[in-house]
Write a structure and sequence with these properties.
The protein has helices at residues 19-29, 46-53, 64-72; strands at residues 4-10, 30-39. The protein is of the alpha+beta class. The longest helix has 11 residues, at 19-29. It is globular and about 40 Å long. The termini are far apart.
Length: 91
């Protein structure tokens, strides 16, 4: 317990059957001032929702609000940031 300063998960939690178990483990493994960085496919409109529903491997098709709610159950401070690429492929 409390072994890590940073936990990073990119585009995995939408595939995890028991997100609650993963988040509980992450919470236990982080040090008091540790940081958990999570990236999930963005679902912000009907088109992005349809694209995620079409992926048979996506189990958790949640909006940013739903992710914030779940994450808030495990972590004191949660911040949601949306990133995107411009037309030239730059962040």
């Amino acid at each position: 317990d409390q072994s890590f300063d940073l936990i990073f998960s990119s585009n995995t939690l939408e595939h995890v059957y028991r997100v609650d178990r993963f988040l509980l483990s992450a919470q236990k493994l982080l040090r008091a001032n540790g940081v958990f960085i999570l990236a999930v496919p963005p679902i912000y409109n009907a088109e992005s929702r349809a694209a995620n529903l079409a992926n048979p491997y996506h189990l958790n098709i949640w909006s940013p609000r739903q992710w914030l709610h779940v994450l808030g159950s495990y972590f004191e401070q949660v911040e949601c940031v949306r990133h995107h690429l411009d037309t030239h492929g730059r962040l």
